[in-house]
Amino acid sequence: MRHRVAxxxxxxxxxxxxxxxxxxxxxxxxxxxxSTTMEKAKEVKSFAEKLITLAxxxxxxxxxxxxxxxxxxxxxxxxxxxxxxxxxxxxKLFTEIGPRFLDRPGGYTRIIxxxxxxxxxxxxxxxxxxxxxxxxxxAPQKKGK
Length: 145
What we know:
By secondary structure, the chain is α+β, with helices and mostly antiparallel strands. Helices cover 42% and strands 23% of the residues.
């Protein structure tokens, strides 16, 4: 019996689930949006928000905790046919993503349902994004009298 066992199994072993969670969250922090299935997105969302809360603290202990939970994957981009190292996922988390959400008490990610279904099994596809990714802050319009 699996009484009071938290989390979804996702038809994977525990090691595979851990690797899936780490890879999806790393991709989310690297690209700030990722396309996946609804079940995986719901499972990964809480882990990503806990890491962002760690990044908001910003101290050395929080950084070491994030590296232990996430692994410190390099961000690599292609420029002029060569691959160039742009930093690490934990570095981006603590320098860009954490400070962006300092004034926000929670709810750092959103799940947007897509109209597409996955080709193999018809699974519901969603976009998992960081709130405010790629959005410009527009000044609110005042209504005229």
